[in-house]
Structure formats: C-alpha cells, structure tokens
C-alpha cells in the first residue's frame, strides 16, 4: 500500500492510495482535497480557520463551595443559578423528578448516565411546573424514542426556564457529595462572571432555615377528583366502597399522591400550607394528609403548630415533610442528613409485617427517634443507614412515612399504606 498525503501549507495536493486484494491485483483510488490556508503576516506561520465546529463545546460551569470548578455543556435555560447539589440514583422517571416540588432550591445530579432518551410528555408531571434549580447529567440523549413523547428534554427545560448541564463527570461529583455531604453550587453560562465570583455566590448562599414550602404551596383550596388512569392502575380490588373526605395540606404535594388517595375512594380537598387548623375542622374531614415538601422542617414553625392543633382530633397521615412535621409536633427533633436520600431503590424494613420494601425517597432531613416521646412507634427503618422511615402513634391516630408510597413511576411496594389510612379512618367512624 502506498499513500501520499497532501501538503496543507502549499494548499493543494492529491491523496492517492494503492492496495492489493487477496488475489494480488492492484487497485487504486484517488480523491483530491484543497484548502485555503492564510498565512499570518505577523508570525509567518500557517493557521487554519476551521469555522463553526459541528459539535457543542463547553459553555457552562458548575462551581461548588469547596472551590472545585466543573466545566460542562449547557442545555435548557441560560444564565446563573445557585442551589444545593444532591444526587439521585433513580434509573427512570426523570420527568417526575423535575416536577417534584420537594426539589425546590436544589440542583439534581442524576447518577444514571444517560438521560433524555424518552423525552417528556404531559401525563407524568407531578406538579404544575418545575421547582428544582437545575439538572446535572452525564450524557444527554441526542434523540428521543417513546410513543408518549411530546417534546425533547432540552426544549422542555427552556420553556420552564430551568438550567441543565451535561458532559460533566457525575461520578466524581457524586463521590465528592458522599464524602463531604451536600454542597452549595452555582451553575452559570455567563462568561462575564469569573470563577471567584461564582465561588463567592456559592459560599454566601444557604438553604438551611429557609421556608421553601410557601413558594410551592397552592394559594387557595381546591377539590381534587382525578384517579390513577386505568392503564396505570396496578392494584385490583381491595379498595374501600365507602367514601372518605380527606383534607390534604399542600406543602409541595405530588399529583400522584392525590391520584392514589382518589383511587382508594377518597374525596379530597387540597388546602394551602398556611390553612388554619380551625378551618380544617370546620370541613369535618374523615382524615388529614400532611404532604411532602422541600427544605428544612424547622424553618416552618407555623406548619408545626397547625399539625399540633390537629393531633388527636382526626386521623392523620404524613408523607416525607409531613412525617418530619409530625415528629416535631410530637416533641421530637429533626436533623439534616449528610447527603440525604434521593432515589427509587432504597430498601426499607416494615416492622409491622416484617417485610422489606423497595422505596422511592427524596429528603435531606430526618426525624431523630430517640427524641420522640413514649408511645410513639418506629414502624419502618431505612436499611441503608438505619434512619427512621415511618412512625405510628395509635393513641393520637397518627401514621407517617419518610418516603413516597405513591412512587410514580415506581416502585409500588408501599402502596398498601393508603389502605392502612383508609382502615384508620374507617375505624374512627365506627368509634364515633
């Protein structure tokens, strides 16, 4: 084989190559390439103008409060945004994560490296908008393939003014978060801002002690009537034939919690986070739900006070933030975890039936069971770290979970807890 390479400096040449096939016959092909190479008059050296590159170059930075700077490529909205960086180990359900109000004020880093391949649709949203501060992923899918896809992930984030970055080492950042704990970071596509300026922004911002619930809660009461669509209903039979009126406090409630309650036969009135306990009692509910929500439960004493005023007067069920508020209302303490629980694969032991359930979790705070008064029962624990994952206090008609029993898009191991809530309301009716 013979090859002659063109001379780029001279500007023209003919590339030829010859090869022998297995029979020894010589064949040849040739093609010509010409390029214009301007010479720099000041340096006397040849430079090549490649023009616009056919691939995206790094145009964004993630600056963490520990001083590390991570170059990346942007998608979604542009600008500069500050938030707390947490990692999520879910393999599916990125649209549910994007619209989960519990992520308000946070950058969600997906450990699953490939995101965006199924696009987005209008059925999987958990709230009316995206509340998270930004999305951090390793690889952004260049195409979408799903029968329900209505839009690409990038276009979806642009419309909702949410920043995203990709082509960043998410494994390295995850290891750092596991070692050092959740870190404040700044995402920016603005070249005018220096790394030092972004670092100062990250170190001057704090999420602890901030009321994030008021920014995600509804502003006025409304009735919820939608059930889980039949094509997604995975439980058959066993639901109550009675109708129970539930008042659901919106601390950042997910739509699929409401759908599951409705599927179990509940009539639901959703009320704002600041709704007075006295107004709730006027509605004469059979039960009250305290929903999930973002941030520090210690930053919302008004919500704790509302919970206190309802204890013992009506059956109550707390999920995530609601679980933490119940813990505080009972006199217990909550604390900030090192990097929290975020993912769809957390094993939980249910002491009531002695089974292990795989759960979906999203929280940075936990209840300290040692601080709880006598009579409060720890019903579930997280098997990864032994933290409290569920409470019950039969005397005051209380039950709660630190994770998501509705678990859309899955797992569904804990869905039966809605039936437990129904049973508690049914028993209260019998005793009335």
Automatic annotation (TrEMBL):
Annotated protein name in UniProt: Carbamoyl phosphate synthase small chain, chloroplastic
Tagged with keyword ATP-binding: yes
UniProt subunit comment: Heterodimer composed of 2 chains; the small (or glutamine) chain promotes the hydrolysis of glutamine to ammonia, which is used by the large (or ammonia) chain to synthesize carbamoyl phosphate.
Reactions it catalyzes: L-glutamine + H2O = L-glutamate + NH4(+)
Organism phylogeny: Eukaryota, Viridiplantae, Streptophyta, Embryophyta, Tracheophyta
Any one Gene Ontology BP term: 'de novo' pyrimidine nucleobase biosynthetic process
Keyword ATP-binding carried by entry: yes
GO MF assignments: ATP binding; carbamoyl-phosphate synthase (glutamine-hydrolyzing) activity
Carbamoyl-phosphate synthase small subunit N-terminal domain segment(s): 58-188
InterPro entries: CarbamoylP_synth_ssu (IPR006274), CarbamoylP_synth_ssu_N (IPR002474), CarbP_synth_ssu_N_sf (IPR036480), Class_I_gatase-like (IPR029062), CPSase_GATase1 (IPR035686), GATASE (IPR017926)
Family per record: Belongs to the CarA family.
Gene Ontology CC: carbamoyl-phosphate synthase complex
Protein's job: Small subunit of the arginine-specific carbamoyl phosphate synthase (CPSase). CPSase catalyzes the formation of carbamoyl phosphate from the ammonia moiety of glutamine, carbonate, and phosphate donated by ATP, the first step of the arginine biosynthetic pathway. The small subunit (glutamine amidotransferase) binds and cleaves glutamine to supply the large subunit with the substrate ammonia.
Sorted UniProt keywords: Amino-acid biosynthesis, Arginine biosynthesis, ATP-binding, Glutamine amidotransferase, Ligase, Nucleotide-binding, Pyrimidine biosynthesis
Enzyme Commission number, as recorded: 6.3.5.5
Pathway(s) of this molecule: Pyrimidine metabolism; UMP biosynthesis via de novo pathway; (S)-dihydroorotate from bicarbonate: step 1/3; Amino-acid biosynthesis; L-arginine biosynthesis; carbamoyl phosphate from bicarbonate: step 1/1
PROSITE patterns, per the entry: GATASE_TYPE_1
Gene that encodes the chain: LOC103488827
Origin superkingdom: Eukaryota
């Amino acid at each position: 084989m013979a090859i002659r390479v063109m001379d780029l400096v001279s500007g023209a040449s003919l590339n030829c190559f010859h090869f022998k096939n297995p029979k020894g016959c010589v064949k040849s092909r040739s093609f010509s390439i010409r390029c214009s190479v301007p010479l720099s008059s000041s340096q006397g050296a040849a430079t090549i103008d490649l023009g616009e590159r056919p691939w995206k170059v790094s145009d964004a930075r993630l600056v963490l409060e520990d001083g590390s700077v991570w170059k990346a490529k942007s998608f979604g909205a542009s600008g500069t945004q500050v938030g707390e960086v947490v990692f999520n180990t879910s393999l599916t359900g990125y649209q549910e994560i994007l619209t989960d109000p519990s992520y308000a004020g946070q950058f969600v880093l997906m450990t699953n490296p490939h995101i965006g391949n199924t696009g987005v649709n209008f059925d999987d949203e958990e709230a009316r908008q995206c509340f998270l501060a930004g999305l951090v992923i390793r690889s952004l899918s260049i195409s979408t393939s799903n029968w329900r896809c209505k839009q690409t992930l990038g276009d979806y984030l642009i419309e909702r003014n949410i920043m995203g970055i990709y082509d960043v080492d998410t494994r390295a950042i995850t290891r750092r978060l596991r070692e050092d704990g959740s870190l404040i970071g700044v995402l920016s596509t603005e070249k005018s801002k220096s790394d030092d300026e972004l670092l100062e922004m990250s170190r001057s911002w704090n999420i602890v002690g901030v009321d994030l619930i008021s920014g995600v809660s509804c502003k006025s009461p409304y009735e919820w009537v939608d059930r889980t669509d039949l094509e997604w209903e995975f439980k058959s039979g066993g639901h109550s034939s009675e109708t129970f009126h539930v008042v659901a406090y919106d601390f950042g409630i997910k739509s699929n919690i409401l759908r599951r309650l409705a599927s179990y036969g509940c009539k639901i009135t959703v009320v704002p986070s600041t709704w007075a306990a006295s107004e709730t009692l006027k509605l004469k509910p059979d039960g009250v739900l305290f929903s999930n929500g973002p941030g520090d439960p210690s930053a919302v004493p008004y919500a704790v006070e509302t919970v206190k005023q309802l204890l013992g007067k009506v059956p109550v069920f707390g999920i995530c933030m609601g679980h933490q508020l119940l813990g505080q209302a009972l006199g217990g303490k909550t604390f900030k975890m090192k990097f929290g629980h975020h993912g769809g694969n957390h094993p939980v032991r249910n002491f009531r039936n002695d089974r292990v359930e795989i759960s979906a979790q999203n929280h940075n705070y936990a209840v300290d069971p040692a601080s709880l008064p006598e009579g409060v029962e720890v019903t579930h624990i997280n098997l990864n770290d032994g933290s409290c994952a569920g409470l019950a206090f039969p005397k005051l008609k209380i039950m709660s979970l630190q994770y998501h029993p509705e678990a859309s898009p899955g797992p569904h191991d804990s869905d039966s807890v809605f039936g437990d809530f129904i049973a508690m309301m049914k028993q209260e009716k019998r005793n009335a």
